[in-house]
Each structure stands twice: as C-alpha cells, then as structure tokens.
Design goal:
Length: 311
Amino acid sequence: MTRKEKLAEELKKLKSMGWKARIVYIWDYYKVIFVILLVGGVLINIAVTMVKNINTKVLMNAVFFNCDYVNGDTEGLTQQFIDSLGGIEKNEMIKTDFTLMLNPDVWDNTRTATETKVTAYNLTGELDCMVMTEDVYRQYQTQGLFQQMELRLTQEEQSKWKDYLVLDAEPDLSEVGAAAGEEMPSEEDKAAAGEEMPSEEDKAAAGEEVPAEEDKAAADEEVPAEEDKAAPGEEAPSEEDGAETSGTATSSSAVADSREAEYIYGIRLDSSKVLKQYGLYTEDQSVILAMPGNSENSEYAVKFLEFLLEE
C-alpha cells in the first residue's frame, strides 16, 4: 500500500468516527509527533530570545513606585523620552517598569514581590533610576541603596536644580544591622516591665549557683575615691590631665559631627510637567528620583532626570 493509499485509509477511518473518538484516535497515534513539535517550538523561541537579548543594549532601566499606571500614559512618557534622545538604534532599549507598588507600613504579598524584584535588580546592577513617593525613598535611603548624586551631577546641574535637591546624612548601616539583631532585655529591664524576678530559692532549684554572702559583700564594696586610687607616692590625675582627656572627647565629638554632613541622594519631581502631563502621580504626592549605588548607566539616568524637569 502506497503512502497516498495509507493516507486515504486514515481519512476514511476518521470520517467514520465521532468527534470524541477522532480526538482520542489522533492523540493515541500522533502524540509523539505533537510533543516533538511543542518542544521544538519552545527551544526555537528560547534561542531567538537569547540571541535578541545578547544583541540588545539596555541604555537605561527605570522603575516607578506607586504611580497610576492604569490610567497614566506610560508608553507615551517612555516614547517621548526616546524622542528627546533623538531616537535610539534598533538594538538599543529603554526599559521602564511602572507597576511597582510599595507601602512601607504594611508587609503583604505585594510588598514581598516588589522587594524581591528590587533586590534582584540591585544585585545584577541593572537598575539605573528609581522614581518613587517620599515614603518609599525614606525606606531605601536608610538602607543605603542610593548613591550620592554629587558623583553624577555637574556643578552646573546642581546649581540649576538647587531648589529640588534632597539632602540627607549618610545612612548609618550599623543601625540597620542592630535593628535586625535586637539585644535581649536585661533582668532590670524585665523587672521594670513588670516581670517577676526569680528568687534565690528558684535559682537554686533551677541549678543556678547562688552567690555566697561573702561574694555579695565583696561586690558591694565602696568604689575608692580619686585620692584613694592614687597609690602611695603617686599623684592623682591633675586638672591638666583631665583637660587632655576632655580634648580627646571633644575630638571624637567633632568626628561624630562630621558624619552628619549632608549629601544629595535625590531630586524632587513635584514640579515635573512631564509627570503631570502623563497623569502618573497626583498633586498631593511628593515624588523623588534617586539612583541606586551600583547603577551601570548613570549617564542616561541623568538625561532622564533632565527630561523630567524640562520646562
């Protein structure tokens, strides 16, 4: 039987069957072919995407927090920025994500998804520009996410936007770490909070060593006065020595004060006509632009800032 005759025979069989029987028959006899075609299609799609990504250069990746991306014209804003650059090449891309939502006072599934995405962007250095409401800015600034913009803005740009600069002290990352590992409350703190202190009998029952009366008496000894501290033949510290010690303390205080110097960590966009034109934020929202510390395309982030603040 020729191939043509076999095909005719198969069609004849199918015509004699109902729809359900046809589907079962085709799946039973041709499912391997379907699986091969499906896997082949997926592999081809992956290969095409990989080649496209390799050849595509991302000029800037910007994310927007808490904006009205449903009613706002997000595509229009992105396209206008591209036009302001004089267009881009076919293998170049401006990436903008307007869907991030975050309420720093609430930890829910939305915040978890947003934090995960920001962390991933930050680890890979793919995030160049963040436009956000002030509460979001405050959260990330205290975590040390942003770079000091003096490193990216010229003196002329800083002067031009002086009314929009957001100045903050350098974040103390040790405090962030301390918050993650809170100190256990002392016995005195527990007592102040109203917790009952264990008695000597309770401690003994629990196997704890109870200090003897002699040990307690030794612990209660009076602290010797300054005159007593001086050994025979030794002078007590003079006022000059005290002044020297005080000078050291003053020096340490000066170092602490220098840490409070303020730097540019953001630029306010409240007066941005572009954001108002495309309806992304309301009048009562305070909006700030900042740049992550490991941004790879700060040059285009500054161009984007200039675009947003153009008159």
